[in-house]
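Quiz preparation item.
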């Protein structure tokens, strides 16, 4: 019997707090595109979606060409901010995140991965800035998959690791993470410190308030 277990983490809002950069980049892109500035709550509500899906939610009346122009402006804005302000190196890990990754990584039968709405370039920057790429055996990004909550990223993670869905867990801060996990047959753990309020995490099997509670929640799911 395969005893391997898999824990997949979302990145923004779960492992790293990138909201300041996301808000600045989105507001700058909207300004350049001539759109009204988005509200903070609206921007945070779409974190986790791929960019084209996120802009479609924020500006549903745009045609395809204008959606693409706004998305391109956001990407350019984020790259500019990365160069000016330090990018992912200035986006802190949440308290306890590094220690939790170290603990889980030290357990032979537990494999770790990431499923994020970031592009691969942004994920690589985050890995390098915080020296956390070494923990993950599978990394799924928005470049090669449909937007969350489509389960494509998690299906690929299962293929990469050979772990059964019944022994896999998705950890995230948004309803998109929880719905994606459910759609892939994963157990789900919602975190209360991220970008969606707890009321939107209703699909989670468990909600935790800090990383110290993660190990116990996983153990109970696998018992």
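Solution:
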């Amino acid at each position: 019997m395969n005893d391997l277990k898999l824990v997949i983490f979302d990145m923004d809002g779960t492992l790293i707090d990138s909201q300041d950069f996301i808000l600045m980049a989105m507001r700058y892109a909207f300004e350049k595109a001539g759109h009204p500035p988005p509200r903070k709550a609206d921007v945070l509500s779409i974190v986790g979606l791929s960019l084209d899906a996120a802009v479609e939610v924020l500006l549903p009346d745009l045609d395809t060409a204008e959606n693409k122009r706004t998305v391109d402006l956001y990407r350019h804005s984020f790259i500019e901010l990365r160069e000016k302000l330090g990018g992912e190196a200035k986006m802190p890990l949440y308290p306890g995140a590094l220690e939790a990754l170290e603990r889980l990584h030290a357990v032979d039968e537990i494999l770790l991965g990431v499923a994020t709405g970031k592009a691969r370039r942004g994920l690589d920057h985050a890995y390098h800035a915080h020296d956390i790429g070494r923990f993950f055996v599978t990394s799924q990004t928005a470049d090669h998959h449909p937007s969350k909550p489509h389960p494509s990223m998690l299906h690929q993670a299962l293929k990469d690791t050979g772990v059964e869905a019944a022994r896999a867990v998705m950890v995230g801060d948004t309803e998109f993470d929880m719905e994606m996990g459910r759609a892939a047959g994963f157990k789900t753990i919602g975190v209360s410190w991220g970008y969606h309020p707890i009321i939107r995490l209703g699909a989670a099997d468990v909600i935790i308030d800090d990383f110290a509670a993660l190990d116990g929640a996983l153990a109970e799911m696998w018992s």
